[in-house]
Amino acid sequence: MLAVDDYINKAQHLVPAPHILPQLMPLLNNPNSDTTKLVDLISYDTPLTANVLRVCNSAYYSRGTTTDNLLQAITRLGSREVYNIVVAVTSAATLSSSQKGYGVEGVDLWTHSVATAISAQMIAKDLGDDQNVAFTAGLLHDVGKIILSAAMESMYEKFALETKKGASLVEVESKMIGCNHAEVGGRLLQRWKLPERLVNAVRHHHNPAAGKPYEHLTACVTLGDFLAYFMGHGYGHYALSLHGRDEALTILNLSAENLPSYMEQGFEKLKSVKNLYGLKT
Predict the structure, then answer these.
(1) How many domains, in total, are found in the chain?
(2) 251 in a domain, yes or no?
(3) What is the residue-averaged pLDDT of the chain?
(4) Which of 84-98, 189-203, 204-218 has the lowest average pLDDT?
């Protein structure tokens, strides 16, 4: 069986590492950052520039005043919104393809990832944790599936049968090909030189108790993943094979009774995010 790095090296359809993201993250998370540095980084990336300006000129933000000035747009939006735009745009190309090895068509993975990101962000915000990082980790949590999809394609029927029986998704992957999408995703983010807490949350999102010292962030992603499935933004029967919910609730000191409220908020938030960012459905 191939090792984790071998699968990543063999991937045919993965976009290059988002080099701009590691550079932008410390700037966007520091309220005292020099805005001109943000402008310098973003201005050389055409899709980012276009999306920052588009969101700034949306009815939600423009207040009737349009702008074609990137500095003015970033100032108006604020670092938190710019951060979310950057993450959404840099991940879109990677997450918007089909993964037949998992029975994922079109933009199903992208939509599921956005729903997970929104849910994780809401939970983190309520708990006083870093909601930007939770959004990012949620959006990227299943990126390993893109790497493993080709290997899983020839085994899809057996894979589907095993998960329908209730075996955990990562257990079935590990049994069939020697590794799972969570550890592959974590390794990929590590190779992209993203912060360790993101790497850790992606690597352990099916086992949040193993996410120390970042178990809070990991648990937010775990619950976000569950909520995305039960909001209807998953794929097939895999919600039956997701483990870790109770662990995540314990880590975050939440109860199952909190989840319906997050689902309700998630539906509304997802609608507004799709409209604001022009996300595919």
Answers:
(1) 1
(2) yes
(3) 79
(4) 84-98
